[in-house]
Amino acid sequence: MDKNAAEAAKIEGANVEKITDANGLSAVKVTFESGILFGFNSSTLSASSKSSLSEFAGILKADPTLDIAIIGHTDKVGTYEANQTVSTKRAQAVKNYLQSCGVSSSQFKSVEGVGYSQYNEAQSAEQNRRVEIYMYASEQMIKNAEAGR
Predict the structure, then answer these.
(1) Residue 35's pLDDT is what?
(2) What pLDDT score does 122 carry?
(3) Distance CA 115, CA 75 (A)
(4) Domain range for residue 101?
(5) pLDDT value at residue 62
(6) Distance CA 114, CA 147 (A)
(7) In the chain, which stretches have pLDDT less than 50?
(8) What span, in angstroms and rounded, lies between the C-alpha atoms of 70 and 103?
(9) What pLDDT score does 34 carry?
């Protein structure tokens, strides 16, 4: 995982952070300065998002033992239900784009929207219209590490 985190950190504008998720699992959270940000009520990827994701896809393709979780977010404008739908579409748009870049569908362990349930008050509404990507060690990666590979 450390090697993959280091590779992700080389992508221009990538922010890589080692975290422990809500389930106690170690993960690497990847976001981009340009952001995987969206317009209001939109799930269309921008050109800069596609550029960052294309580069990131190379890391995922190089190590098929990485598991990926994608989480879509929204701002607080609109109903909870509408925002839940939009956030899910955003996460799915990122998954679809990564797959179009050649990332295996088996690497996607979770693709979900959380609406504005994780709204960051310190950020602008635009910065909350985002998608976050998490890299996890798959069972195969753990077995390989235990076997010294």
Answers:
(1) 66
(2) 56
(3) 8
(4) 2-139
(5) 94
(6) 37
(7) none
(8) 13
(9) 65
Structure tokens at 15: 């922010």
| The token pair that represents 129 in the structure block | 């219209």
Given this model, what pLDDT does residue 95 score?
Answer: 97
Tokens 């890391």 belong to residue: 59
Name every residue whose Cβ is closer than 8 Å to that of residue 128 and which is 6 or more positions away in sequence.
73, 74, 75, 76, 116, 119, 120
Residue 149: inside a domain: no
Amino acid at residue number 61 = K
How far apart (Å, rounded) are the C-alpha atoms in residues 8 and 12? Answer: 9
Hey, what are 17's tokens? 């952070």
Residue 148 included in any domain: no
Q: How far apart are CA 50 and CA 58, in angstroms?
A: 13
Torsion angle of C-alpha atoms 127, 88, 97, 51, degrees rounded to 10: 0
User: Cα separations (Å) of 40 from 8, 64, 84, 139?
Assistant: 28, 34, 13, 38
Q: Which amino acid is at 110?
A: S
CATH label of the domain that carries residue 86 = 3.30.1330.60
